[in-house]
Design brief:
Elements (H helix, E strand, L loop, with lengths): L1 E3 L8 E2 L13 E6 L2 E9 L15 E2 L7 H14 L3 H8 L12 E6 L9 H12 L3 E2 H8 L3 H9 L3 E6 L19 H16 L3 E7 L5 H14 L3 E5 L7 H11 L4 E3 L5 H12 L5 E4 L11 E7 L7 E2 L5 E2 H12 L2 E6 L4 H8 L4 E5 L10 E6 L13 H12 L3 E5 L8 E4 L16 E3 L4 E3 L6 E3 L13 E4 L3 H11 L5 E4 L7 H12 L5 E4 L12 E6 L13 H13 L10 E6 L5 H8 L2 H15 L5 E10 L2 H14 L6 E14 L2 E11 L4 H10 L8 E6 L6
Parallel strand pairs: 9-16, 9-17, 10-12, 10-13, 11-12, 13-16, 18-28, 19-26, 19-27, 25-26, 27-28
Antiparallel strand pairs: 1-2, 1-4, 3-4, 3-5, 6-7, 6-8, 14-15, 20-24, 21-22, 22-23, 29-31, 29-32, 30-31
Helix pairs in contact: 1-2, 1-10, 3-4, 4-5, 6-7, 7-8, 15-16
Length: 716
């Protein structure tokens, strides 16, 4: 039998199936690997490349639900598309190895008979707790009664408490799909019923749910989830930042009575084990998660929703490099289930697929209820003479003052964490950089430290320049959100402000608390980065100020304009989402840029048309194919030699060219030197075959690693 192991191996290994053992494809089995034993998945018949007598036997079958055929096909598909080892992809689907074994039996204690001859206050509290509820584990019962565990044991020995087996794991609550949803507008009703019909049809179809910010897209696809649940099937919702989805979870619980099963990196191992097993057993009807939830073992997957489908967070850049949005479409096809891609600013790839007829499209053109889209204006900062160390222009300051005077809320957006992006010595010009990366250290003043946002290196802010030795000459250049908060505190000392950035939120609970404070009007001004742009709904937020609207337009990224438009459109969409009209002020040094002009005019479709025309003319995605090779290693000479050899061996031909090698923009990352090459090909070119031939022609130098990124989103 061929057994695939969750290791970075090219393919499955052959093992002998002992007589009398049944292990069909998908079965989890234990097998020997060298001197140790490991768990793998039966992938199918053996290859026959090794004589039967030389095969090592499968040791045993793991008593876990088998991996379904659709998930196994997805693993093979992702491996073939990304050129990652199939075992590395399998490891993502087996991310909680302990979930394969049944949890240990738990003992609980409930009320027995009689009362003790010597009744103490401690014993009375224990018996009172036991009578008031179901049996509880010893530690839980002792804590609830405020006694030591020995008191509980003593009562059990006397028969006044009885030991019972507790359910090993409590499955997630079952959402009630029959609960009444919100009152839909006519447009919402049409779209909701169309999505529900696609779910009922139980066949693959990809649909773009396109709607302006605040149109009620979430409630509409909740209706589709209800249809899946009514048919006895499971639903998966992918969010780009699940740890920040407090309001989404609240809305789901309000609609269905219980929260969904979550899946993200902030869960404990025990929580992940419980949810993985519940999904595999079909006891988790709805899962909401980050991109890794795509590899959970759903036995009855009836719907996949990718919310904010345009978001770059769906692209995994480390390990197996893949785009969760695209792989969600693949999994839906393999499951023969519908997939819904949701966005107010769809990616160009999705728009082109709709126009080509590969995807269907449903549109919500208006905000829900009485809300209207905010008015957007651009302020030309070339005309503003700001004092040194100030970043808020007069127009924005005046608007903030008026907003606070009206008792409304405002948001300031700057997509830069920390206090300042650069620290420079005014005596010698030395810039404080990371020793492991070709990047500047970012000052985080509230922590009193400098930090690299690429490798995590930190150091205390020095008083003396490490280059020239001058004291007190180090200066912070440029603003981050911390510096912006400092300016706000000086300009508006009575305003209640808070920061919202990925490094100020310590987890989902902190994010939830901040969102609740904002929704409860305990905060006048929210200052933050792009995490603020992701789906938050604050009814009294009427002003959004973008401090540096041009920030994302720098560099040579082919998607720079598209990303900047999407981000600023999403940020702007936080304003005026209820009865109070909203306004947006963009501080820009390039008001004539097409992105700014499209935002001001509210002309999303015009911007998309221009971007599509530019991409088509240059044969860039989605009208051409790109694949990147990132060559890295501890020795710059070895990396450079390997990169040059790859450059000489690169594919070339009609509609196919190899660009590079060149040092990567981040030429040093985590202590490894980096070079990049780019394969640019026509859309129909066999990119994976070209890459395999290319890589097979070059032997990497010592310690050199070659990472493949098919359809790259990052060019760092």
């Amino acid at each position: 039998m061929a057994v695939l192991l969750p290791l970075p191996l090219a393919g499955a290994y052959d093992y002998r199936l002992p007589s009398g053992m049944a292990a069909p494809a998908g079965t989890f089995v234990t097998v020997p690997l060298g001197a140790r034993e490991t768990v793998g998945v039966v992938w199918g018949p053996g290859t026959g490349s090794v004589a039967e007598a030389r095969l090592k036997p499968i040791h045993g079958v793991v008593p876990a639900p088998p991996m379904g055929a659709a998930l196994r096909r997805l693993i093979d598909w992702v491996a073939a598309y990304t050129l990652a080892p199939a075992g590395a992809v399998l490891r993502m689907a087996m991310s909680v190895p302990e979930a394969l074994t049944a949890p240990p039996t738990r003992i609980g204690y409930g009320r027995g008979t009689g009362v003790p001859e010597r009744m103490t206050a401690a014993r009375a509290r224990v018996l009172g707790e036991a009578e008031s509820g179901p049996p509880q584990p010893l530690g839980v019962l002792a804590t609830a009664a405020g006694v030591s565990p020995s008191v509980v044991r003593g009562l059990a020995e006397l028969g006044h408490l009885v030991a019972v087996d507790l359910a090993a794991e409590t499955p997630p609550g079952r959402p009630d799909w029959r609960r009444a949803g919100p009152r839909f507008s006519a447009d919402q009703r049409l779209v909701a019923e169309a999505l529900a019909a696609k779910v009922t049809a139980a066949r693959f179809e990809a649909t773009l749910l396109d709607g302006v910010n605040g149109a009620g897209k979430t409630e509409v696809y909740f209706h589709a989830i209800a249809s899946a649940l009514g048919a006895g099937r499971q639903a998966l919702v992918l969010l780009p930042e699940i740890a920040l989805g407090a309001q989404w979870l609240e809305r789901f619980a309000e609609r269905f009575g219980v929260p969904p099963a979550p899946w993200h990196s902030d869960l404990t191992r025990a929580q992940r084990r419980r949810i993985w097993r519940a999904v595999a057993a079909g006891q988790a009807p709805v899962v909401v998660g980050a991109r890794s939830a795509l590899f959970l073992p759903f036995p009855e997957l009836g719907l996949i929703v990718v919310d904010e489908e345009h978001d770059v967070s769906f692209k995994q850049e480390e390990g197996v490099v893949y785009h969760a949005r695209d792989m969600a479409v693949v999994r839906a096809r393999l499951e023969d289930a519908p997939v819904v891609l949701v966005s107010a600013t769809p990616s160009l790839e999705t728009v082109v697929n709709v126009r080509a007829g590969r995807y269907d499209s449903l549109h919500l053109p208006d905000r829900h209820g009485r809300a209207t889209m905010p008015a957007i204006e651009a302020v030309d900062m070339r005309q503003a003479e700001l004092p040194v160390g100030r970043w808020l222009g007069p127009r924005l300051v005046s608007a903030l003052a008026a907003t606070f005077q009206a008792g409304e809320q405002a948001m300031l957006f700057l997509n830069r964490r920390g206090y300042a992006p650069l620290t420079l010595c005014r005596a010698c010009g030395h810039r404080l950089g990371c020793p492991n990366c070709s990047a500047w250290l970012v000052e985080h003043r509230r922590l009193g430290r400098l930090q690299c946002h690429h490798c995590g290196h930190t150091m205390a802010l020095p008083e003396v320049c490490p280059h020239c030795g001058e004291v007190g000459r180090l200066a912070a250049l440029g603003p981050g959100v911390e510096r912006l908060a400092e300016e706000v505190a000086t300009t508006f000392p009575s305003a209640r402000s808070a920061m919202m950035a990925s490094d100020t939120l310590t987890g989902p609970h902190a994010a939830e608390a901040l969102v609740q404070r904002m929704a409860g009007r305990e905060i006048d001004l929210l200052i933050g980065t792009q995490v603020m742009a992701k789906g938050h709904h604050f009814p009294f937020l009427t002003l959004v100020g973008v401090v540096d609207a041009d920030l994302g337009l720098a560099g040579g990224d082919l998607r720079a304009a598209e990303r900047t438009y999407q981000l600023l459109h999403q940020v702007a969409g936080r304003a005026g989402r209820a009865a109070y009209p909203g306004r947006v002020i963009l501080q820009t040094y390039m008001p004539e840029h097409p992105v700014m002009q499209a935002l001001i005019a509210g002309d999303r479709d015009g911007f998309v048309e221009a971007e599509i025309a530019a991409r088509r003319e240059r044969a860039l995605p989605p009208f051409g194919r790109l694949a990147a090779l990132i060559v890295s290693g501890p020795s710059e000479a070895e990396v450079q030699a390997t990169a040059r050899a790859l450059g000489r061996a690169g594919p070339r031909g009609e509609g196919i060219e190899t660009l590079g090698p060149v040092p990567a923009p981040l030429a040093l990352l985590r202590g490894r030197y980096r070079y990049r090459l780019l394969l640019k090909a026509r859309r129909e070119a066999p990119v994976q075959r070209l890459l395999r031939t290319w890589l097979g022609a070059v032997e990497p130098g010592r310690g050199v690693r070659i990472q493949i990124d098919v359809d790259p989103y990052s060019f760092l």
